[in-house]
């Protein structure tokens, strides 16, 4: 981490990590009863929804599909618990975190140790222009886009298209990509094979209960709803107009957390389903804070209230922001890229004059 004295818009020295550590310290302690309560109000309703889907199939698919969509919402919450286990923050016991993380990984189709490794890289490099590419959304600068080949520009536009980003990509990520080891680490690679085996056992068991066709269709709906919501949350938490990106020694961990991670202010019901992860600036400041303590931490220190929230309506604008402009330090749409291209084409003419 750099010790550069960068000052955030909050008026606080971004390099003064000791001050933030004092503000978050008491909220880094896991609570067994809060953790057990979340397990009870998340995993139990999720199992109940699958039981109701089983019963509803005897009546009509029109009853089962809406139940599967609600289950997709609970799957997002299960993923947040999985996410906390990966940070070692959900329980005090690391063994308990690992066991619950593996179980949640079966339901979310995500290999625990491999995902934990990739996500740790994301936390250590978020907002760092020189360290993009692992555990983040593909983001190019305006100049990089202008200098890219036609094929790369097409691929980038396709990847950032809302239909691909929120419907196709989540399904491909959770069903296909998570089945393939992406690191040379022995434990991480083994976690993928063990998770593939566990997911196969889960699929066979559920297919025996529901029937292959019924289970696959219902699981598809659950995964699509949960995956789309989860990818959207991750996307909007690091893709907004005034997001923080820096290079080299100018990058600062604290600034990246408070300015590069959004405070996504959601309606209460959506905040519940998303496990308070909208307080993403707090989470990136201290990943050791479990999700059930994020709002309490935010409310406890007045300085956090200076972080400008992004509302549900305002967040939709992020879909039009595609490229990072190093000149204005803002995320912008393709219109700015076209403007820069015109400027570059006009330069030789100006020099000739």
Report on the biggest sheet: 3 strands, mixed
Number of strands: 5
Global morphology: globular
Structural class based on helices, strands and sheet pairing: mainly alpha
Helix content: 55-70%
Q: Which range does the strand content fall in?
A: under 5%
> Termini distance?
47 Å
Low-confidence stretches: 1-12
Biggest sheet strand order reads: 1-4-5
Mean pLDDT: 90
Radius of gyration: 22 Å
Order of helices and strands: HHHHHEHHHHHHEHHHEHEEH
User: How many helix segments?
Assistant: 16
Describe this structure in words.
It is a single chain. With 353 residues, the chain is mostly helical. Helix content is 63%, strand content 4%. It has 16 helices and five strands. The chain has helices at residues 17-24, 32-56, 61-86, 94-108, 112-125, 142-146, 150-160, 162-176, 186-210, 212-238, 253-260, 268-273, 280-285, 294-300, 312-315, 334-352; strands at 140-141, 263-265, 309-311, 323-325, 330-332. The strands form two sheets. It has a three-stranded mixed sheet with strand order 1-4-5. Strands 2-3 form a two-stranded parallel sheet. Strand 4 (323-325) and strand 5 form a beta hairpin. Helix 5 packs across helix 9 and helix 8 packs across helix 10. The longest helix is centred in the middle third of the chain and has 27 residues, at 212-238. The radius of gyration is 22 Å and the shape is globular.
């Amino acid at each position: 981490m750099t010790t550069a004295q960068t000052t955030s818009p909050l008026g606080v020295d971004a390099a003064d990590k000791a001050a933030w550590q004092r503000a978050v310290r008491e909220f880094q302690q896991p609570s067994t009863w809060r953790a057990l309560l979340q397990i009870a109000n998340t995993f139990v309703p999720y199992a109940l929804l699958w039981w109701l889907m089983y019963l509803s199939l005897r009546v009509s698919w029109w009853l089962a599909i809406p139940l599967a969509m609600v289950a997709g919402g609970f799957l997002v919450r299960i993923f947040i618990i999985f996410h906390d286990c990966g940070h070692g923050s959900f329980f005090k016991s690391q063994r308990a975190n690992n066991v619950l993380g593996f179980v949640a990984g079966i339901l979310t189709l995500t290999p625990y140790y491999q995902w934990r490794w990739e996500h740790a890289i994301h936390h250590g490099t978020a907002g760092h222009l020189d360290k993009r590419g692992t555990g983040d959304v593909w983001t190019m600068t305006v100049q990089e886009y202008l200098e890219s080949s036609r094929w790369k520009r097409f691929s980038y536009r396709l990847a950032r298209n809302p239909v691909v980003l929120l419907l196709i990509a989540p399904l491909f990520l959770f069903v296909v990509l998570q089945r393939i080891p992406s690191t040379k680490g022995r434990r991480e690679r083994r976690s993928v094979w063990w998770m593939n085996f566990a997911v196969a056992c889960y699929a066979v068991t559920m297919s025996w209960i529901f029937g292959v066709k019924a289970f696959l269709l219902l699981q598809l709906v659950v995964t699509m709803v949960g995956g789309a919501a989860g990818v959207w949350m991750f996307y909007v938490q690091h893709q907004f107009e005034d997001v923080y990106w820096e290079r080299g020694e100018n990058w600062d961990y604290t600034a990246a957390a408070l300015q590069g991670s959004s405070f996504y202010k959601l309606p209460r019901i959506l905040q519940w389903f998303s496990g308070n992860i909208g307080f993403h600036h707090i989470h990136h400041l201290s990943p050791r804070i479990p999700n059930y303590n994020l709002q309490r931490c935010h409310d406890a220190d007045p300085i956090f209230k200076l972080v400008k929230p992004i509302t549900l309506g305002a967040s939709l604008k992020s879909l039009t922001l595609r490229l990072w402009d190093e000149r204005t330090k803002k995320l912008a749409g393709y219109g700015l890229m076209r403007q820069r291209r015109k400027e570059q084409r006009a330069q030789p003419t100006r020099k000739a004059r």
